[in-house]
């Protein structure tokens, strides 16, 4: 099979991204234009502003990705784009541009699920390192600002998928999900509540190292309400809990309650206005503006999140008897999460793989990589497909 150069395009949330990946195994270029500055004053992503910023950035970002890869519009073999899940208006910018390119250049167009992209970020980088020996079955925790999902990932034989050799296709079974907030959303909301700005994950990650993670005890998440869904082919009914679901709205409320009980509002407002005056606050700026109580709260919050994510994921891994664990998505960039997964995974003899930090958060290299098996299988999209804000991964 000759090399295939796939141009990936990603615009599902607040990053406009384009990348060129060779045969699902080598990143040739990877360009990400972040909109953090646009959304920061609002403390979260504003969908209308996200669409407008994608419109502004999409052409220069794609041009840069092609130029850095020494490729042209004509030379790439296919165009891959995120179909969903994500913000509909934001997704449409990438999809419309990808369709226009595919039509004008007469190239195959491949629609990719964003969550499948996050999983393929791990596969891409392992192949890039020369690791072709991953053991199956694989359990993947996709943990980001919009998602906290557990998938059992299965690969089908190459001939089954494409009839022409090369890598086979993939299917995914969702065995756990968040009932309310995603884990990254909890990091973002708690950071906002404490006057630490947006996005919250990276700053909580850095500040947590300066606090006492045992200072505040948060009760474990209680999952009480019923949820109907498939579990390994069987309908899960009331009272029949597989125990792999997550819930993070409770911990956010517990942090709010702690802030109220300890009358932290005034110091939070002072911190918010002090940090707002600094163009690009550095760790030292945050530290100067955080007292010990705040640092302890941040560290305890992160510890609680990490314990819950690691504990539930490893329980699912044991129950499904998987051979390998992937942890991917924006929150997978978290230092304590990585260390804890590595430690506990090693204790249980379970290899754990993460993407590098640039490929943990949203990017288009993962979209181009996830498109490769579809390219081999000639699983191309028609020009009439549209954005799907709640696209499920199967
Ligand atoms: O995957 P991603 O870039 O976008 C989505 O698909 O949602 O993830 C963004 C999320 C945000 O909630 C951000 O706060 C979180 O990932 N995040 C982190 C870290 N870096 C990014 N959370 C915890 N620790 C980090 N180091
Ligand atoms: Zn994502």
What this model shows, in words?
It is globular and about 65 Å long. A hairpin with a 3-residue loop joins strand 2 and strand 3. The relative contact order is 0.19. The longest helix is centred in the last third of the chain and has 29 residues, at 292-320. Helix 11 (292-320) packs parallel to helix 12 (335-347). Helix content is 44%, strand content 18%. With 394 residues, the protein is an alpha/beta fold. The model is unreliable at 161-166 and 235-241 (pLDDT under 50). It folds into two domains: 1-133 and 356-394, ATPase, nucleotide binding domain (Nucleotidyltransferase, domain 5), CATH 3.30.420; 183-350, 2-Layer Sandwich (Nucleotidyltransferase, domain 5), CATH 3.30.420.40. It is built from 14 helices and twelve strands. Strands 3-2-1-4-5 form a five-stranded mixed beta sheet, sandwiched between helices. Bound molecules: 5'-O-[(R)-(carboxyoxy)(hydroxy)phosphoryl]adenosine and zinc ion. Zinc ion binds next to helix 4.
* Poorly predicted parts: 161-166, 235-241
Question: Hey, roughly how much beta strand do the residues contain?
Answer: 15-25%
Helix content: 40-55%
Secondary structure tally: strands: 12
| Overall domain count | 2
- Give the overall shape, derived from the CA principal axes: globular
Per CATH, the architecture of the largest domain is: 2-Layer Sandwich
How many helices does DSSP assign?
14
Corresponding CATH superfamily of the largest domain: ATPase, nucleotide binding domain
> What is the H/E string?
EEEHHEHEHEEHEHHEEHHHHEHEHH
What's the main sheet like? 5 strands, mixed
| Radius of gyration, whole Å | 21 Å
């Amino acid at each position: 099979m000759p090399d295939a150069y796939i141009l990936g395009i990603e615009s599902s949330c607040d990053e406009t991204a384009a990348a060129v990946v060779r045969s699902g195994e080598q990143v040739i270029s990877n360009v990400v234009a972040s909109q953090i500055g646009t959304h920061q004053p609002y403390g979260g992503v504003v969908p209308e502003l996200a669409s407008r910023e994608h419109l502004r950035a999409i052409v220069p970002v794609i041009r840069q990705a092609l130029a850095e890869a020494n490729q042209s519009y004509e030379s790439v073999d296919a165009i891959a784009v995120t179909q969903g899940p994500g913000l509909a208006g934001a997704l449409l910018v990438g999809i419309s541009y990808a369709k226009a390119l595919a039509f004008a250049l007469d190239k195959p167009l491949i629609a990719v699920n964003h969550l499948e992209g996050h999983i393929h970020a791990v596969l891409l980088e392992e192949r890039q390192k020369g690791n072709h020996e991953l053991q199956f079955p694989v359990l993947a925790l996709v943990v980001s600002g919009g998602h906290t999902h557990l998938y059992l990932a299965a690969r089908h034989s190459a001939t089954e998928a494409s009839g022409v050799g090369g890598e086979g296709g993939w299917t995914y079974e969702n065995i756990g999900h968040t009932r309310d907030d995603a884990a990254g959303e909890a990091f973002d909301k708690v950071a906002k509540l404490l006057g630490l700005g947006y996005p919250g994950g990276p700053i909580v990650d850095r500040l947590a190292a300066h606090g006492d993670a045992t200072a505040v005890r948060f009760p474990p998440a209680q999952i009480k309400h019923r949820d109907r869904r498939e579990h390994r082919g069987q309908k899960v009914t009331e009272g029949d809990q597989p125990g792999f679901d997550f819930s993070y709205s409770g911990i956010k409320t517990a942090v709010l309650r702690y802030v109220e009980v300890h009358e932290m509002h005034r110091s939070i407002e002072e911190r918010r206005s002090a940090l707002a005056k600094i163009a690009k606050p550095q760790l030292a700026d945050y530290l100067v503006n955080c007292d010990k109580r705040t640092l302890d709260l941040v560290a305890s919050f992160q510890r609680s999140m990490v314990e819950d994510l690691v504990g539930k994921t490893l329980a699912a891994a044991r129950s499904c008897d998987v051979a390998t664990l992937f942890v991917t998505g924006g929150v997978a960039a978290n230092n304590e999460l990585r260390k804890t997964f590595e430690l506990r995974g090693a204790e249980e003899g379970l290899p754990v793989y993460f993407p590098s930090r640039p490929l943990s958060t949203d990017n288009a290299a993962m979209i181009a990589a996830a498109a490769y098996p579809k390219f081999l299988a000639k699983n191309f999209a028609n020009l009439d497909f549209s954005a799907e804000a709640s696209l499920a991964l199967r």
